[in-house]
What does this fold into?
Amino acid sequence: MRRLGPDDDPDRIYIVTGGRSRSTAAHVFDLVTLIVSECEPAPGMQSEHVRILRLCKSPTAVVEVSAALGLPIGVVRILLADLLDTGRITARHPHSTTAVLPDTDLLKDVLDALHRL
It folds into this structure.
């Protein structure tokens, strides 16, 4: 998680989040949550919200949004929560595939063979 660094302007961060350090919906977003825009930016929207909506026309992970905006994850979560609350984005976790794992005996045999090399 990116922390506020010496080059970050705390006043800008404060302004971007409206002074908030948390949002009620921020817990929904982990680093790999995929964000998808549900609408085009509207006139008068906060510039960071506009950038998020444009960036997330296709599914984009929260960590990618943070990197693209150059903002800490905590700040991005607050911005995403704003957009989620107004229905401008949807958030979903990547589909987990139910992988069929090989038999443990087979894995042991492979490991034994590797040790013998």
In short: Helices lie at 10-17, 47-55, 62-69, 73-85, 104-116. Residues 101 and 107 are 10 Å apart (CA to CA). The first strand starts at residue 34 and ends at 37. The radius of gyration is 20 Å.
